[in-house]
């Protein structure tokens, strides 16, 4: 049980970093 919680936490953190990276790369584009 705790292992799956750790994995889902890592997945959530990775998705959050991915979103931040997309925001940074898109912030210089028109219409963002």
Automatic annotation (TrEMBL):
GO cellular component term of the entry, any: bacterial-type flagellum
Annotated localization: Bacterial flagellum
Keywords: Bacterial flagellum, Cell projection, Cilium, Flagellum
Chain segments annotated as transmembrane: none
Domain Flagellar basal body rod protein N-terminal: 6-32
InterPro entries, per database record: Flag_bb_rod_N, Flagellar_basal_body_rod_CS
Presence of the UniProt keyword Glycoprotein in the record: no
A Pfam family that the UniProt record links to this protein: Flg_bb_rod
Similarity comment text for this entry: Belongs to the flagella basal body rod proteins family.
Protein's UniProt name: Flagellar hook protein FlgE
Protein encoded by which gene: flgE_1
């Amino acid at each position: 049980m705790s292992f799956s919680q750790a994995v889902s936490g890592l997945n959530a953190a990775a998705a959050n970093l991915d979103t931040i990276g997309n925001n940074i790369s898109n912030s210089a584009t028109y219409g963002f």
